[in-house]
What we know:
The chain has 393 residues and is α/β, with parallel strands linked by helices. Helix content is 33%, strand content 19%. The protein contains 14 helices and 13 strands. Strand 12 (328-333), helix 12 (344-351) and strand 13 form a beta-alpha-beta unit. Helix 8 packs across helix 9 (286-296). The longest helix has 17 residues, at 235-251. It is globular, with a radius of gyration of 22 Å. The termini are far apart.
Amino acid sequence: MGVAVTAVQSIGILHFHSQPELKRRGCFFTSRIRGRTLVFRPYYYQKYDENTASIFTPIIITSSAGTTSATTATSGAGSVLEVRDIKEQYKKWQWKGQYSINYFVNSSDSDSDLTQQSQSNPPLLLVHGFGASIPHWRRNIKPLSQNHIVYAIDLLGFGASDKPPGFSYTMETWAQLILDFLNEVIQKPTVLIGNSVGSLACVIAASDSNQTLVRGVVLLNCSGGMNNKAIVDDWRIKLLLPLLWLIDFLLKQRGIASFIFERVKRRESLRNILLSVYGNKESVDEELVEIIMEPANDPGALEAFVSIVTGPPGPNPVQLMPRILLPVLVLWGDEDPFTPLDGPVGKYFSSLPSKQSNVSLFVLKGVGHCPHDDKPDSVHEKLIPWLANLPTS
Length: 393
């Protein structure tokens, strides 16, 4: 049962709540109304202010016979896969005989544990965006697993995959990794589902005229390049381009790069970055911050960060998309500050359905750069029927 946020206005003074069973949810404030304890979780850790009352999410706590229970207004909690459960199913694949690539598959080694429907439908490969990893899909794996075998991969340089010293990261490298993974591991025509730079890697892979194992492509706020230097025809980037080149120069100085990276990967810094790119601030929880922060402490993470930010942006999706004749679903959050709808990349993808009959587009309201984690229900509402209607061959 939920409580209208407008009710917060009349609560008055709120008190910090530190019950052990609620600590895992973060910072709480409580107040008594009509015999009930209302617990409020702020998106930001700040003092209560009536002008910012709308940022508190109410949770009703009812007590009976000394026990306490909590119910939130959030739906679908049972569809979220625990990060520890994901990690328990991690597998390793040797790419090119020298790089250990971390991946996940929702099935056991035996096909007998799979439903007949999931065996007949195409498998899915989830490809994360910049700074993310397999657990970023924790809200999606279960719903998608109802009818499909679901794979997810940590791209080289991210997550629990290798971060080799001195490696020069490129979009083409990640695209080739995806194609090799399809050929060597999945070995079946597969639907690629990517977010941000992961989307662009999927586009590059699907546009390869030699590939035979891509069944369809789903793009979640596709990036225009490995970094912002790709979008030179956006007036906002033109204004910032001198600054971007300066940042590149500074990041190539080891001491400066280490100083910057140490501050970027701090918990509070990551939380603020995530809050700026998520439309649904409720999704920016401590678990998400940990998912992004943990791999950033691995050896080689700094080098990967510098190489990606300062490296070549890679192929432009505008040149690649006309080569793709497979079914394509484009989902775009309308509150994305990285690749906004009114920017050149957003405008291009918005225009695609009128140019290519194989492309479907849905704009997701109130959603930021990572739709699958920001508002997963909005993504599943469009994605699952699209998957069900894919041509059989």
